[in-house]
Amino acid sequence: MTIEINTPSSTATLKNPKAHLTGAEVRKLARANLIGDTGGLGHGYVQCNLLIVPARYADDFRRFCQRNPVSCPLVAETAPGDPTVPSHIAADCDIRTDLSGYCVYKDGELVATKTDVLEEWEKDTYVAFLIGCSYSFEHALLDAGITMRHREQGTVVSVYKSKIPLNAAGPFSGAMVVSMRPFKADKVKQVQEITKKYMLAHGEPMLWGDEGTQALGIDINKTDWGQPTNMEDDDIPAYWGCGISPQTAVMDSKVEGTFMAHRGGYMLVTDLRVEDVCA
Amino acid sequence: MTIEINTPSSTATLKNPKAHLTGAEVRKLARANLIGDTGGLGHGYVQCNLLIVPARYADDFRRFCQRNPVSCPLVAETAPGDPTVPSHIAADCDIRTDLSGYCVYKDGELVATKTDVLEEWEKDTYVAFLIGCSYSFEHALLDAGITMRHREQGTVVSVYKSKIPLNAAGPFSGAMVVSMRPFKADKVKQVQEITKKYMLAHGEPMLWGDEGTQALGIDINKTDWGQPTNMEDDDIPAYWGCGISPQTAVMDSKVEGTFMAHRGGYMLVTDLRVEDVCA
Question: Which residues form a coiled coil (chains A, B) (predicted)?
Fold first, then answer.
């Protein structure tokens, strides 16, 4: 495969030679399982969380997303039984193979982690839901000269399961999952202003500071996904909605049947340009 | 004023001769301050919560609603400075006079309760937001033969300020407000099925049962608005989003400036038929 690396237009690319891959190029690498975490890849392309649900649950799950748009911003869904992603979202994309890591849940229990879900797909009629991801706005912060600790430290962003309940819909309920990035006080307003327009990528932080940490009922040093972030004393944590929430809902609700999802951080990178859909 | 009472088509009307008023008729009564609580009035017409914000906050407040659609389902908004409600929502309706009770907030503090806000309207440029209300789906439960305790007991529905944070947007943040109606276990599924389509009226319950009560962090016997509900031992509380949430957000956030809102229960009854907008 030939991959052209364009001239970097942003500081984000300086440390990451794969930052300027297109969405289609990232998907090729993911399909071949040559990459894992997609943070920083496909700079400027919309990245998505995935939840594949038995078609009989599609209406309830769509409504679950609509009732929790900050945690589950709905980007697209597939036709029942059709593994093809709508072509304006991601061309020539097979949802069963084009991520490099999947989690398989049965009756609410994680039963397998796989690199494709071709086998599972045959056992029922499924609908795949693509849900926005906060990876999609990180380039905008970097472009504004706002660095993020997990990028500086080379860690995966800190993710927590909170005590805050999502709004139930049909059989789906569960606790909200959040990602956390710390900033100095003088950046708070700017972070809010920059990220608020990216509503398909969870938008601006939903909670801030120690008050946010308390409301979430979490220990900031104990991540449930990703890695802990080394913080300075005057760092202010900013908490964003996170598209892992649907997976915890599947587990918390113990919904009967087989569900498939992306592996944390191993997102579907689409052909959508972030600036085109979040202006 | 001549008011025609049509033949009752539902059990809801049997106890309430004003159930079959049209939205326009209810507004006339409200304008003349001849009614207060609008529960059970204008059977089948969409009832709305109100928040009037200085125009400079309109974008942030609209986004606040979009990020919290279960608490703040957005039905309509007015043009900046224009007190007229869009005519397809409520014809010949002046938002400053056509509710029978208003609360006025200054810098986050409740400073007055009034029957119109003509005087306040002159002091700034305002945008009025209409937000759906759970009164709009009660007729559907009654039509299905599902009674509600507050209707049986002749009390105002129980409303609580919870410990659950809403998703922040710009200067707006705060704790979620919920309304509660108890049901027997054998009605739970039916209540969920019936109310889920009324997304502009908060849709299906967001939380259920003792687990919900705990997640909300409330004492079910201590209401913050409305009145306590006498419950039987095997009653299961169902919690819905509530459009008083924006008022608590204005207070919790201590947003600078003058804000106006409806008085709890004294809703704007529109010309929209519930079944037309929530099918």
Answer: none
